[in-house]
Specification:
Distance between the termini of chain B: 70 Å
Strand content of chain B: 35-45%
CATH class of chain B: Mainly Beta
Shape of chain A: elongated
Largest sheet of chain A: 12 strands, antiparallel, barrel
Number of helices of chain A: 3
Largest sheet of chain B: 14 strands, mixed
CATH architecture of chain A: Beta Barrel
Oligomer: heterodimer
Strand content of chain A: over 45%
Low-confidence stretches of chain B: 1-5
Mean pLDDT of chain A: 89
Mean pLDDT of chain B: 86
CATH class of chain A: Mainly Beta
Distance between the termini of chain A: 45 Å
CATH superfamily of chain A: monomeric porin ompg
Number of strands of chain A: 14
Strand order of the largest sheet of chain A: 2-3-4-5-6-7-8-9-10-12-13-14
CATH topology of chain A: Porin
Chain lengths: 310, 241
């Protein structure tokens, strides 16, 4: 189930790196071509995740994750009502217990945006394409993650802003078990209590592939059901070393709800507290002795992030 | 037989009594306070679009019904904020501020004048309407402009969000600068005490947003000259992995 490194992959890695570095190394070019830079953003986060294996019952493992992410982009006016944004980003996540899941990433995103006027309530429509390379402490998950889709951002009132998105997510891991595709439909509402205080509520429906990791020997009956259902998309997961665990790629429907609070300290700094809960249910047939409930799981992520823009 | 207009269903009776008492309009008003509303030109006779916390006009508590006109003094407590319009001008006055909408001197050629005694105000002015702004440390002449100012006895922060502004330091008339801006291009600090000719310094872009400019422009039926607001929301919008 492993694929060797290919020239195609190396070329894509070079392209992703180059795209991420363009904003940093080419300010002179940007000025010459009438670009504007977007502010640099840096965020540091601490997340408690109660199910890093994305599995049910006793297979759910808890971990704490420290993350950093930095991004910088440039704005390219196309017409008065249309603009393009190209952004490079890089970062990493460090898992406290399951270090095989720790990883670094580098990537780029391009957006094309349209807004009909400067009216307060005018919506901003956007189409985007994002690609990133990911390098894990373990091997099988190494690869690429891509997303493309459309978004609409609209102030509903002077306190509430709506963000809707429809996007396709594609991951391309070293192991085909980690080659996944899913479609996500997302709605988010930002509710500003004042200039500095914003609550946000998000709901997302996701349909497609997901990977779940479960202990091989803990419950032989459950393992048999997982194997029967997921075959041939199974591999021994090298990110976990406590016991032998296998990763299974399955079809599922996932509902993600997010509740957050953002407290800005100035125009460029904020502290963000959020809770995200994901609930997954199998959308393919479960093969005996497994039942669909064997594949159901929930994830709770509590996150504290500090963000700075300059 | 029941007389016409007498209801026997107690739920309908309560509903009609609630409607008569204006329950739903006050509930709507409370909802607007919590969830906001879509801004647009203010109806004739209304000056204030939004008021929160402690705000006074000429030392009287301000409500949505309070009229504001030239000559009035508007003041906000630290917890207060008021968004209002006077003629073709619109303002967002932040907490801990005091400003006077002045009546322009006769034959001055000015249409509007305002004095920001202390605090922070975002303002937009109609095209072709010469305006003078006085702050604790500066005198600013503008025309058809959006500006943001913060002032205290030591210094004034002044951002010409768009348009043209002639900025002069009050204590040093040799310190002056004309700013032509399209999108917050040249924010300034104007110092109370500075070297002669050097009381005006460059400043960063702080404490106001394009969304606020769009909001107050909409109260007087205009839109700002830019289409895309600068990004100011600073929350992570991470995807679920």
């Amino acid at each position: 189930m492993r694929r060797g490194a290919t020239t195609r992959r190396r070329r894509r890695a070079i392209l992703a790196t180059a795209a991420a570095l363009v904003p940093a190394v080419a300010p002179g070019t940007a000025r010459a071509l009438d670009f504007d830079f977007t502010p640099a953003r840096v965020e540091a986060s601490l997340t408690s995740d109660d199910n890093v294996t994305r599995a049910g019952g006793s297979d759910a493992l808890r971990d704490t994750i420290f993350g950093v992410r930095a991004s910088k982009g440039l704005l390219l006016p196309v017409t008065q009502r249309t603009r393009a944004i190209v952004q490079g980003f890089l970062g990493g996540e460090k898992f406290q217990k399951y270090d095989g899941l720790s990883h670094n990433f580098i990537g780029a995103q391009a957006d094309i945006q349209f807004r009909s006027s400067g009216d307060f309530g005018s919506a901003t429509y956007s189409a985007f394409l994002r690609t990133q390379a990911e390098y894990y402490q373990s091997t099988l998950r190494d690869g690429y993650r891509h997303a493309y889709g459309v978004t609409v951002l609209k102030p509903l009132t002077d306190r509430v802003t709506f963000l809707g998105a429809l996007q396709q997510n594609i991951s391309d891991g070293k192991s085909t078990v980690f080659d996944t595709q899913n479609t996500a439909l997302r709605a988010n509402f930002d509710w500003s209590l004042s200039t500095w205080n914003t609550f946000y509520f998000g709901a997302e429906y996701r349909k497609g592939d997901f990977v779940s990791t479960a202990c091989r020997t803990c419950d032989p009956n459950k393992t048999l059901g997982l194997v029967n259902t997921a075959t041939p998309n199974i591999i021994e997961d090298d990110a976990f070393t406590d016991v032998v665990r296998d990763a299974y790629r399955l079809k599922a429907n996932i509902i993600v709800a997010t509740l957050g609070y953002n407290r800005a300290f100035s125009s460029g700094q904020s502290l963000d507290l959020s809770w995200r809960r994901a609930t997954s249910s199998l959308s393919q047939s479960a093969v005996a002795p497994a039942t669909k409930s064997d594949f159901a799981y929930t994830v709770n992520q509590y996150s504290l992030a500090y963000l700075v823009r300059f | 037989m029941r007389p016409f207009g007498v209801l026997d269903d107690p739920r309908r009776r309560i509903l009609i009594q609630a409607l008569a008492a204006g329950f739903f309009s006050s509930a709507g008003s409370a909802a607007a306070q919590i969830f906001g509303r879509s801004p647009g030109p203010l109806p004739a006779g209304q000056s204030i679009y939004r008021v929160s916390g402690t705000v006074s006009v000429n030392s009287q508590p301000a409500t949505l019904q309070t009229r504001i006109k030239p000559g009035d003094t508007v003041e906000t407590a630290p917890n207060g904020e008021v968004v209002f319009a006077v003629a073709e001008e619109a303002f967002l006055l932040r907490g801990g501020s005091r400003m006077v909408i002045e009546t322009p001197p006769p034959r001055s050629g000015l249409v509007t004048a305002m004095r920001l005694v202390t605090g922070k105000v975002l303002s937009v002015f109609g095209k072709g309407r010469p305006t003078r702004i006085l702050t604790a440390t500066s005198t600013i002449g503008i025309r058809g402009t959006g500006v943001y100012a913060e002032t205290d006895p030591e210094q004034t922060y002044f951002c010409t969000c768009y348009g043209v502004a002639d900025v002069t330091a009050t204590n040093d008339p040799t310190s002056k600068q004309t700013v032509v801006a399209t999108h917050h291009d040249n924010p300034l600090y104007i110092l109370a005490k500075g070297k002669e000719g050097a009381a005006i310094r460059k400043a960063p872009f702080i404490n106001h947003t394009d969304q606020e400019l769009m909001l107050i422009e909409s109260l007087v039926g205009r839109t700002p000259p830019f289409v895309f607001p600068m990004e100011n929301y600073n929350a992570p919008r991470r995807d679920y992995p």
